[in-house]
Amino acid sequence: MKKTKNLLLLLVTSALVAFTTACGGGDEATGSELEGSVVVDGSGTVFPLMAKLAEDYMVNEQENVSVEVGRSGTSAGFKKFLVEGGTDFNNASRHMKDEEKATAEELGLSVKELKVALDGITMVINKENTWATELTQQEIIDIFLATGGKKNWSDVRPEFPNQPITTYGPNENHGTYEFFFETIMEEKELIDTINLQQDYSTLVDLVSKDVNAIGFFGYGYYANNQDKLTAINIDFGNGPVEPTLETIKENGAYAPFTRPVYTYLNEDNAKANPQVLDFAIYVMNNADQAAEETGFAPLTEAELTEQAEYLEGLK
What we know:
Layout: H1 2-22, H2 27-30, E1 36-42, H3 47-60, E2 65-69, H4 74-81, E3 89-92, H5 98-107, E4 111-126, E5 134-136, H6 137-144, H7 153-156, E6 166-170, H8 175-184, E7 195-197, H9 200-208, E8 213-218, H10 219-223, E9 229-231, E10 233-235, E11 240-241, E12 258-266, H11 267-272, H12 274-294, H13 301-312
Parallel strand pairs: 1-2, 1-3, 5-10, 6-7, 6-8
Antiparallel strand pairs: 3-12, 4-8, 4-9, 4-12, 10-11
Helix pairs in contact: 3-12, 12-13
């Protein structure tokens, strides 16, 4: 009889624990509930990736945390990040510059670079342009070079139309411009007629309406506008290479036009505000899937895990 009573007591206790858990009565069951805000700005190229992660985080992880993601551009974003009371994260399509590191040091800010994905600079043309679907790397450089002498398409190849080339790209606020100028053009002067824009959707619209246009931006903006634009396959010396999530690799076929993209974390803000650190860890744990969904090549699991473990160590 005593054995039966003990069994009934155990069952009642188990039922109460189950009921309490189902009602969300313990942190062990629901996880820590956070609140507050997280402010992210910077690269327009990285914006779709971070906006996706922010949306998923607010919907699936912490509904009482507000994550605001801006896209003022890498350089403009650093000006908002490297000030007293600045943003929590700055997305960047290039490394932090020495002068920006010096500013952080002067302010006493502890900044952590977090690599989030890989992007491929994608050269795009109008859908009606059927002649420039494949170009060599040098032909592209010459088109954008001040001294390249390629004013008309027929200057690039005699069989191309004798029509003026119109060039487009993001302006100096963007890390994409800086990567193009510094890495691809090797800091040589660009053609003075290039049309530089702040907003990527404006660039898509301009190229889609100009049969003689050629422009550049991150692969994601092409991937989301394939009905309006054609991507140029680039010959780096071993035949034309199409930009895809498979070819965009640091040591792959599209490597000369591939670059890592980052978000920079204010570690002081992360230590003082649990929701900032929690979102940073969420980004590292979910960047691979979000990257593929937004037009970026994912990093290796080892790279993301190493960065997530570093952030866990800040708790």
